Amino acid sequence: MACHQPPAGGRQTAAITFPPSRGASRMRFHAPMAGMTMAILMTSTAIAQETSDDTVVLDEITLTASRTGATESSIPGSVQVIEAEDLAIRLRNGETLDRVLGTLVPGFAPSNGTIGGASQTLRGRSPQILIDGAPRTSELRGFSRELAMIDPASIERVEVVKGSIARFGNGATGGIINIVTKTPGDGQQTDLSFSHVRRLNGLGLRLELSRSSMGNLYDGDGNQIPSDPLVGQGGADNFTRQGGAIAMDWSSGSNEVTARIGAYSMTQDIEYFTDYTTNPVSVGTTPYTGRDVKDISRFFNLTWRNTDTALGETELTLFGSDTDRRAAFVEAGIANPLYYPVSPTNPMQDPNAQSELSTKTLGSRLTIRTPLDRWRQGAQVRWGGDMGYDDVTQTYLAGRDLIAPMTQKSVGAFAQLDVPVGNVDISAGVRAERFSLTGDDFTRPDAVQLKPTGLYLLPSVNVTGGTFDYDAVVGNLGAVWHATPELDVFAGISQGVSIPDVGSFTRRAMAPNPFLPGQTVPFASLQPEAQIVNTAELGLRYSGQKVSGSLSAFVSTSDEGTVFDSATNTVTQQKEKVWGGEAALTYIASDALQLGAVLGWQEGNYDADQDGGSIWVTVCPSDQTSLPRP
Questions:
Q1: What is the CA radius of gyration of the chain?
Q2: How far apart are the first and last CA of the chain?
Q3: Is 464 exposed, middle or buried (0-12, 13-18, 19+ CB in 10 A)?
């Protein structure tokens, strides 16, 4: 679980949003609500449309996020697909993708107001963010900015599959958010967003160039929102982002190749430090002295697909990324009680102790869909394997390591069997995963702990590295009953696996006596256990001509939940449990008016002292500020 600490004096809010027609103003109301998010949505179209009595039946979308070529109606779990046109109006009005998803997706935590993904969970646990089915950053260090960094004009749709999912490997304990980008298409097109599409015989090319900027942001009362509301994450104000990408597709016979290569950079210019002593946090009066928040990334994704091999449809994907991220500098104080001094004899905060993270990822994924019609009509098995490589370093401006430099190699294999039995679709699968993690020798820098009784020097600690292996075998079983052409009832159990944020454990390395200098601790004493999350879910979905909706309830458990304690600045693992429910309803009132509502509720507890009991926790409130800085 990504966060557990309730905010000091904080509250969770429900947002009731009425997206306006063109030229209208936007109104938003907030009301306190514990452990629940709700949104009521109304969309009106300003352009007149011709009415028609002819019903047009659209083909179901094949979900990239399922990896198995499944459609929404065949998945025994909660699935949501948000198309580009549903995102466009909100994104054009200045909302960020994370805020839009927090409004439209029940169970996805509200936006934290930053460019980082800290505290924004799916069903109280970490989602795996994929772009075209591939990750852009390493799971070894939790510092995600993908939802803020992607160019909105490049998005074709967003697929959300909830629950513990292992088909893409490490990280999806709460579900998968897969952003599918646009391909060249069949025609020629130039947009105001500076994208250009051209097709030459079987080859399609799409060029994307974008630049955006934002000034100060203000809340509903007219107060300026601080540039770093969540302790080092950076904010969504005073930034400039530019990026570019080339997408390509080519087909010949049963062969198809798609590719995307691109880069982006983002810079946030902070003027004043944040005052974390107010509720809510506010813009301080002290001028910001750190360097700009930055994010620079290069990436590629290449997929070959053949629909007619001897084994069935075969797909091979190669992907990679190289990302550099700089966090905001945070003054020592109530929100940053553990900081790096100039030297052991000078307890003043080192002005160069601003964090910079570098991650490199490479990977390949093979997926084969083999029909089993000779055994049973409509049955098929989807199987394949993955290989991955991650390289992670984190330093401060002077170049000193803040975490143990790490590399991880992973290999996995999976098989998923789908069998139709009458009007019931049964699905069962298994995945085996092996991770080999190597941590280099490193020295955790001297640190100063601020306490009400004074300053306490925590001398540097030597951490001896090594290579460590993680193994996991997880499975899933589910069924969908197509009760009527419009109504599906589904139930399933599934498991997901995640290697927790290993970097945060090494960054907080402590010897048994933290005040004694010159001590050494082995990496093995710090490494966390692999987290396996078990999820059970029951629900239904209805799709009629005018009314559609879904309803589900879930419970997820883990013996290796991860909790950050802001009071002691430590990260621990223990048993935890999260449960909740979600509902969504859409009504098409006319060709020009669509009404909708979503509701999500979740609660949880964890065994803080590992004695078999439990204490109550709040699952990721939207205005939480007591999180570890990146």
A1: 24
A2: 16
A3: middle
Tokens representing 62 are 């094949």
At CA 67, angle to CA 541 and CA 422, rounded to 5? 50
Alpha helices in 84-143 (DSSP H): 84-92, 97-104
Per-residue model confidence as pLDDT tens digits over 559-584: 877 765 555 555 667 788 899 999 99
Q: What is the pLDDT of residues 303-352, one digit of tens each?
A: 999 999 999 999 999 999 999 999 999 999 988 998 999 999 999 999 99
- φ/ψ of residue 138, rounded to 5: -80, 145
The domains located in the chain, with CATH, are 13-47+67-617 (2.40.170.20)
The two tokens of residue 159 are 């697929």
Q: Which residues, 6 or more positions from 564, have their beta carbon under 8 angstroms from its beta carbon?
A: 3, 4, 5, 504, 570, 571, 627, 628
Structure tokens of 57? 């039946």
Angstrom distance (rounded) from CA 329 to CA 234: 9
Question: DSSP letters along 436-472, please?
Answer: EEEE--EEEPPEEEEETTEEEEE--EEEE-EEEEEEE
Which of the given ranges, 38-42, 493-497, 506-510, has the highest pLDDT on average?
Answer: 493-497
Element (H, E) at 127: strand 127-131
**pLDDT score recorded for residue 283:** 95
Measured over the CA atoms of residue 448, residue 451, residue 454 and residue 458, the dihedral's sign is negative
User: What CA–CA distance (Å, rounded) separates 249 from 256?
Assistant: 7
As a whole number of angstroms, the distance between CA 546 and CA 554 comes to 27
| Tokens 């939940």, located at residue | 561
- Give the pTM: 0.81
Calculate the average pLDDT of the chain. Answer: 81
Q: Which long-range CB contacts under 8 A does 261-265 form with residues at least 24 apart?
A: 261/299, 261/300, 261/301, 262/208, 262/298, 262/299, 262/300, 263/296, 263/297, 263/298, 263/299, 264/149, 264/151, 264/295, 264/296, 264/297, 265/241, 265/294, 265/295, 265/296, 265/297
Greater confidence (57 vs 202) lies with: 202
